[in-house]
Amino acid sequence: MRKNQSSPALARAARNTYFKAIQTAKRVHWSQFLANVDSRSVWDTRKIAAGRAPDRFPTLEKASSPIDINNTLLQHFFPPRPSTPPPLILPAFKDVPPVSQAEVPSALRKSSNTSAPDPSGIPYSIWKQVHKANERLLPSLFTPFLTHGYYPLAMKKANGIVLDKPGKPDYRTPASFRIIVLLETVSKILERLSALRLASAARSIGLLHPNQCGSLAGLGCFDAVATLTHEVRLLQAASFKVSTLFLDVKGGFDNVCANELANTLTKRGVTAYLVAWIKSFLSKRQCRLIFQGAPKVFCPVAVGTPQDSPISPLLFVLYIASLHPTISQGLAIFYVDDLTITVSSDSVRSNIRALQYFFGVIQKPGADLGVAFSVPKTELIHWRTPKDRSDVSFAPIVINDMLFPPSQAVRWLGYWLTPTIHSSVHFLRRLALAKASFTSILQLSAAGKGLSSWCNRKLVFGAILPILTYGCDLFVPDTATLKKLNSFWHGVLRWTTNCFYTTALGALYREASLPPISSMCKHRRRSAAIRLVCAPSEFNPAAARILESVPAWDQGRSADDHRFLLRGSSKAFHLTSWLNPAVNSAKHLPLDSLCHEVSDLIEEISILPLASTDLVALPLSRVPSVTYQALRTPLIQSLLTDWLDISPPVPSYYPYGACLTPHAFTGLPRFISGRIHQMRSGASYLAAHISWRNRDSSTLCPFCEEDDESF
């Protein structure tokens, strides 16, 4: 070996020093980056920490070039179909209300500035600034399109982002991928305006079925699931066996036929200009697929309704409105392309025969519309009461020559339903999801460094609490489940505030400015109940099933409500009176016990307020002068009161009250704010901070042993 040549040991040492320097530089840079994160960049930081798997290149059989891959994907996702050529002459329709300056802001408010870019690359923030600078520009641009029933070709171009479906065993077929369509932002503003007009017209002429809960303003998953569970319990109270079949429409949006939809809307009396505009909107569309090496050329595609469009869900709901069956002892609930058929009889076998019959009732007209049902997503459940001691029925159902056994847990619209409608399965699933979300943000803040306590609280409030408490508007966690939820929630609060495990729980809640889980669950239930009693019964199937004695704003009731089955029966205790002071949820129907949660808030209000004029399409003569927001303040006050009643007592020395606003010092660096939290809560590692557990402890500095330790 030459003298001037380094030995292997020195080379390894130099290499290790080099890589350690890189790791140190990365760690220092990441710490500095986290220390400077504010409210505007906290969510971007979470995305960076979560990471993103690299895009998978679509390697398809019999496709050897990007052009072949592009054509294969287009042929699979957008198969050619016959279409009617657009009219050569566009006459102006009469009596078309122009787009007003007040309509545009309502559409812009629902548009996010961070949405993915469209083919033109113009974000919503630009259009918001344009409307702010000149409020007459966008209305004057959109009005001619509606007047002539025309959708311009320039707005029909879209980007199709090709993404792989996770967990597929083979990625050599187009079915292992999906396409996310990104439309022009200006076109989606026009589509939102048209959707508002179409929804108002559809509700006024009765185009929408009262049990359709999806894609409609003022309705959500809670209304659909609450209606289902309420009817199940009601039919069980009438001594019937109840069964439900869960179905999912296969490729629903892609199967909408423009001509069939236009004919249906015309026959039902929708204004001619809206029908012509919808027909133009669904024809002659173009898409440009985006993947590695894609040719990126716009190609004509035949598609039912674009999935990224704000009006597409409403068009699909109107398209399948005729599929709703009429069931004498049961009901059918639709949520866009997810539907349930519930029947009841004296035996499970009779229920299976009834479900097979009603499936055939909707299958034939669905086939005429080009709508089919996804076989793998079909599920069956036989409901039971908690006190039912009879043998569990495992009777399956045969649909399209396929056997479907009953499930013990069904996930529908994010709610986990069991045969006894027990809440433990649902909340344990939510707890697992919340833990996974917490793991993704745990690395953003450690003891003494990382994100500030204010940013941590923002992440907890926006990324963990909604996951953990989803479904608590309908379900109530039992004692064992609540204990597990609290254990996880306490760990989250300690991470948020950097407090020690010895911190008193009463002080921990107040330091984090976040209430206990049980208080949040009760608050969500009360909020749902307020929204329910304030909703119009002709638009909300759950509101149409509450007790007549409840002082609701609208006293209308659903035509398929089965409360009449309980009249004169021995189980009349289910017909709860609103005046009863206490309600046992185990002995009363779900909606009855839910409405009683807010009896103290609304019993003295003569006219209950409606949600908002833009939530439901109602004539102005029917809108009360008081708004739904009038009850938000009492709800918040009741949350604070319940917090103080449920929370463990705070130490006698702790003088700070409960509030939902984060403390001012939480915006300080992590180490400083954490130290303040520790000192306020009475659990600090400083010897100079006297502990509430041992007020006689020495304050002598453990290092110099000459004087008291200073702060």
Quick recap of the structure?
The protein is of the alpha+beta class and 711 residues long. Helices cover 40% and strands 10% of the residues. The protein contains 21 helices and 15 strands.
Textual characterization of the structure:
With 711 residues, this protein is an alpha+beta fold. The protein has helices at residues 8-35, 42-50, 66-77, 103-109, 124-133, 137-147, 185-204, 221-237, 258-267, 272-281, 312-319, 348-368, 424-442, 453-469, 479-497, 505-512, 517-533, 590-596, 599-602, 632-646, 670-681, and strands at residues 157-164, 177-183, 241-250, 285-290, 299-301, 330-335, 338-345, 372-373, 379-382, 397-399, 402-404, 410-412, 415-417, 445-446, 449-450. The strands form five sheets. Strands 3, 6, 7, 8 and 9 form a five-stranded antiparallel sheet that branches. α4 crosses α7 (185-204), α13 (424-442) runs parallel beside α15 and α15 crosses α16. The longest helix is centred in the first third of the chain and has 28 residues, at 8-35. The protein is globular, with a radius of gyration of 30 Å. Mean pLDDT is 85; it is low at 605-626.
